[in-house]
Every structure is written in C-alpha cells, then in structure tokens.
C-alpha cells in the first residue's frame, strides 16, 4: 500500500515541460524500487498509481498512461528476474553482494523500462502528431537520460533501506528528500532548457528577418542533423550542441548580409570575400552564451571543405569539427532540395556522393543516404542541377528575395577555385 501511495504522489508531482508532450513522473522511482520489493507486483503499483492521477485528462490519455506503465513495469520485472535480481528480503551480505544481487539487475531493468517508455511515447506521438518514431524516441532519451540515472540511484537506496537495512515502510521518509530534490532539479533543468530554446528561436527569427531567403532553412538543417546524430554515434550533449549549431549556423549573415553584392556575377570576388566572413561572425555573435559553447565550432567551420579548400580557415579532413562536417552535408542537401525547382532527395544524395572526399565527408554522406527514408521535405520538385557561380541565378538556387543561395555546392566550388591568398591555415 505504501508503494501505491508514494507512486500516486509521484504521478501528481510530474515535471511536464521537458519537451512537446514530454515529462517525467517521480513515480518511476517507486516503480523501479518495487522490482526488488514486490517483483511482478510492480505492475499493480504502476497501474493503480496512474489510475489515481488527479490531473484532468481525456479518457484515452489516461488509458494510454495506465496501460503503458503496466507494460513498462512488466518488462522491468522480467528483465530483473532473468538477470538474477533478488528480492530485498533475500539480499544478504555486504555492499558488493547488494550491488550484484540488486543494484546491477535493477539498473539493467531500469534501462529497459526507460527505452521501452521512450519508444511507446514515440509511437503515440507518431499516431497523434505524425512525428517520426526514431527521431522522437531519440529526443526523449536525449532529454531525459540524466534524470532517469538519478532515479535509479534513489530507487536502489529505497530498496536497500526497506530490506537489508530493515526500515520497511519507514524508508519512504528517508527517500522523500532525494525525491523532492530530483523533482526540483528537473524543474530547474526544464526551465533552463526552455530559456535556451527561446533564445535560439529569437536568433533564428532575427536571421530570417535579415535574410528572407533563409526562412525555414535553419529548421530543415536542424531536423536533418537530428536524424544524423544517432546514426553517427553522438551522445546526448553532442546531439544538443549539433542541433543548436544547425539552427544558428548562418546567424553571421545578420551582420554581413548587407555586404553581399545583389548580383554576384558582376563582382564575384567581392561576393566571395563578403561571404567568407559570416561563419566566424556568427561564432563571435554567440560567444558570450555559455550554453552555446559546444555549438560554436560547428557554426564557425560549417563552410570548410574536406579537401581543405573551404572557408574561413582552410581546414581539411578530420581537422574540421564533426558538427561542422554534419552541417555542411545537411546544408548542401537542403540547398539542392529545399526550394521549388530543387532535386528529389534521392537525386540530391547521389550528387552529394560525387562530392564525397572533395567537398564533403564521405562518412556523413553515407549516413545521409542511410537516413534518407526518414527525410520528409516540405517541397521537393525535380529541377536542373547548376554548376558555376554565375549559374546560381537559375531557379533551383535562387532564394525568394532574389539572392543566390550561398549554401549551394556550386558556391563552394567557386570559392575553392578562387582561394584568396592566406585563406588556408598553415
């Protein structure tokens, strides 16, 4: 009964604002602790706790939460028992025996529960909002992973105090403080994340106001970067840095846009010179924001080339930050496909394959091909491929404001052919 009461309190203390329709219930701590305490009885604890949720919600939402919790608890119980997890009353011996007999199986069970929870949430999001299952699940894991690690530690403490320490139901008093601290910590993290997102949105809005041709481009590049991150082995923090860099990679155009010639064909050198400064200008604009520190290398170097003929520093190969190499591929892909008259996605990937090893990192182009089935573009109408800087005025590569698309691969080729003296790093 005490587990059900604690579970119900945890459900109603849920931190809700961790993402779109995404939150964490402190009932997960109780649910995890129930595995070594009552075994498969954890299913009942989960069912009753979520059934007693006092928040107003639709019947189907409540039914989904209750059934999902039961499934997750059942999976956790199976994993715990299969891995030899002990009931707390049977866990005797020193700390090592407790870690092996309770802690390790509990951690494995909790990981399984967490992954299953993220997957089921992603499936529901797909059914309700049409989002991608893999991407949504990855975003949930990325946002909630650290919070869930703290939960399993508290759950282990709860079980040990209940059983081997002999406190029984009184152990709830000793874990109440850590539970409240965990809830407060998640609330603070959620608030900071919302503030960061609002800051980034403000910057993107300023960019799109200054450069109308970029409207929607940053969001598409960030979406593609989100797809590539798990495929390339990015951890949660690296994926967040990549996303911020993808959203803000062109922010330097806010300060340099006025320097770009309206017709680059009339003054090609002036156009390329002005264009070459916007990556570093963007990094300087954002340098004072601590949460963007990890994104700055990707912003400053997203126009470098694998062969060393890019800008602003002439880096080559793996000298180029990985985030910048990812953005370079996503940038070129969107320039080829993201406007009316652009290429179909599959055709664009084939063109980018031809540029792998010169303009682009071959591994990331391969990763793009692997995630291509998940890519959905708002507009992708077949059109001609253009080459050469002066051909940027062709329909496939002209922005709505009449300016050529500086992200088009032919602009990179023009810069590589031009190469002002001293652009390459020593």
UniProtKB/TrEMBL annotation:
Domain of life: Bacteria
Protein name: HD-GYP domain-containing protein
InterPro entries recorded: Cyclic_di-GMP/3'3'-cGAMP_PDE (IPR052020), HD/PDEase_dom (IPR003607), HD_GYP_dom (IPR037522)
PROSITE patterns per record: HD_GYP
Pfam families associated with the record: HD_5 (PF13487)
Record-annotated HD-GYP domain positions: 192-384
Keywords: Membrane, Transmembrane, Transmembrane helix
Matches recorded under SMART domains: HDc
Organism: Ornithinimicrobium tianjinense
Coiled-coil boundaries: none
Gene3D superfamilies (alphabetical): Hypothetical protein af1432
Transmembrane segments: 26-52, 64-83, 95-123, 144-162
